[in-house]
Amino acid sequence: MGKQFLGKGVVPIFGWTEGVQVEDRALGQLRNVARMPFIHHHVAVMPDVHWGMGATIGSVIPTVGAIIPAAVGVDIGCGMMAVKTGVRAVDLPDNLHAIRSDIENAVPHGRTDNGGPNDRGAWSEAPERAANMLSSADSGPSMRTRLEAIVAKHPGISRAAARIGIHVGTLGTGNHFIELCLDENQVVWVMLHSGSRGIGNKIGTYFIERAKQDMQRWFINLPDVDLAYIPEGSTLFDDYVDALHWAQEFAQANRDFMMRSVLAVLGRHFPGKLGHVDEVAVNCHHNYVAKEQHFGKSVWLTRKGAVRAREGDMGIIPGSMGTRSYIVKGKGNVESFCSCSHGAGRAMSRREAIRKISLAEHEAATDGVECKKDASVLDESPAAYKPIEAVMAAQTDLVEIVYELKQLVCVKG
């Protein structure tokens, strides 16, 4: 399927949305973005598109001379990682609860105590390898040193920066997850979804607020206050890009840390069977900014809930916790800015899902998956998401499917 015309501002909006739901308020957000004077060529919309805070999730926004911090969002560098193991279906026990429990014990997840000292989603005492990772300086300043330089210019993020040692290697909340899956060949995969944790959130909210303050100071009227931007050439822009890149790197390292923790659990459950786990390992962002060349210009490309899909790029498109997920290879479709969807996309808000989905419906939808079956995950139940099959059908000219995965175990943040 190909692109569809979804509307126009200063530039047109093209979507790969045939056969999937696109809500009116998401279209309204997209049209507001397309009205901004620094958008280059067009806005691309992925089939998992839905309304989001700041900007539409499932959108690809090329800008020249400015970045909109709220379009990037507060989960900077959020993305996916997947590893193919040597464990096979025949190796699995009939009951997977012990494996789920051990994964939950190995990776802090969720949030309690208002994020305070007893927060179950953070380390009570940071592991030694977390400190080593943050302090490593093999090829330039360490991550900790670089963050200290950012904090020196912007002390408003200092409190969150002080917690990176107990946040690295932790999952977070909401739709972040760790899963064990089976592919078509009955091989077990580990897949996880997370971002830059508290520090990424603080960097995002801090620079969004700074951008809004500048818009007020310069008397700039916007179609939506969340489209406040930072112009290139300013000191604030340089600082924001520096902080963005740091948070994106931290998010990727965070996923790698968690993956090692999960693989250690599997190594204890299946001694000698993990195999060469680097055979297929994908670690890709889907909430980030990159400098790329598109339609004759060097642009700041914001992928807000979208995965880079240049020709040959490996990516991950997860379904909901009771359906299927896909390892894909990009086709390099230039009209999508070489992008694809980052998942199934929400069909209901979290509040609506909690109100409409019953526990019985959730249990039926996650039958065969070792996961929570209580009210705490109703907002993540499969019915809250678009059908992943329809989302994949809408982007056949963006990616090809390499592996199809079925969930066995799901740990939700």
In short:
GMP binds at residues 175-179, 286-287, 318-321, 325, 342-345, 412. The chain has 413 residues and is of the alpha+beta class. The protein is 31% helix and 25% strand.
Going across the major beta sheet, what is the strand order? 10-6-8-7-17-15-14
Question: How much of the residues is beta strand, in percent?
Answer: 25-35%
Query: What's the overall geometry?
Result: globular
> What is the ordering of alpha helices and beta strands?
EEHEEEHEHHHHHEEHEHEEEEEEEHHHE
Task: Give me the oligomer status.
Answer: single chain
Number of helices: 12
How many angstroms does the end-to-end distance come to? 34 Å
Structural class: alpha+beta
Description:
The chain has 413 residues and is of the alpha+beta class. The protein has one domain (4-347, 385-412): tRNA-splicing ligase RtcB, CATH 3.90.1860.10. 31% of the residues lie in helices and 25% in strands. The chain is built from twelve helices and 17 strands. The chain has helices spanning 24-34, 69-72, 97-106, 128-135, 143-153, 158-161, 164-167, 197-217, 235-269, 350-356, 359-365, 388-393, and strands at residues 4-8, 12-15, 43-50, 57-63, 66-67, 79-88, 177-182, 187-194, 230-231, 281-285, 287-294, 297-304, 306-308, 314-317, 324-330, 339-341, 399-412. The strands form four sheets. Strands 10-6-8-7-17-15-14 form a seven-stranded antiparallel sheet. Helix 3 (97-106) packs across helix 9, helix 5 (143-153) packs antiparallel against helix 9 and helix 8 runs antiparallel to helix 9 (235-269). The chain is globular and about 65 Å long. The two termini are 34 Å apart. The relative contact order is 0.19. The model has no long low-confidence stretch (mean pLDDT 94). Its EC number is 6.5.1.8. This is 3'-phosphate/5'-hydroxy nucleic acid ligase. GMP binds at residues 175-179, 286-287, 318-321, 325, 342-345, 412.
